[in-house]
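task queued by scheduler; priority normal; single chain, no ligands, no partner chains; default sampling; output format set to structure tokens
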Amino acid sequence: MPTAFLEPDRSLAGERFFLRPWRALLLGAALLLLFVLLALLVPDQPLAIEQHWTDWMRETQTAPLKQIALVFNYLGRGLGRALVVVGVGVVPIVAKRWWALLAYAVTEALTPLLNSLFKALVDRARPPDGLVHPSGPSFPSGHVSFAAATLVAAVLLFTTVECPRRRWWWLATTGIVGMAWSRTYLQVHWLLDVLAGSFLGAGVALFVFAAIQLPRRAQTLQDE
């Protein structure tokens, strides 16, 4: 992810999520557009590369890797997901960062809403014989969209002007890739499903945080 788009604005009073919020907004919109294009073009049957990847995941199954994948599975659903959402959301509440809390809440509400809508519209079948038994169609991956939205939001919430963000973007990317790997390892999603989920979650987070910063930036510049 281009870090030049994502550095905090050092001149803006109040919440400073981006140096250039318009660029972040456009990046988020571009990711969402890619997601919609995938939704329109994704085939009902898996592509050859998707089938080969799923076969390879099946061939590389070991007990330790399965346990790691199950940890990701727990963190993306039910109680595990709720604990992650609350754990991240407590930080802006304690700090009384109400605009940051609003951006985070909208991100966490909008991502699963869009995910469920496109699951119903696309209605793609899941891989057979999954190691866990999720409900609903396969496209996009709800676990990956949740991970992408939450990790991008966490970077924007937890980093400060004095904290370089490059390393944190790498950690967020690693977490998203780990969640994507786990969904294919557990044989419950195809590759395009997890790719689309990453576009959706990251796109929503960037778009929402930038959209909330922009009016405040304009007001600040007007007051100066």
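post-processing summary
- The radius of gyration is 18 Å.
- The chain has a mean pLDDT of 89.
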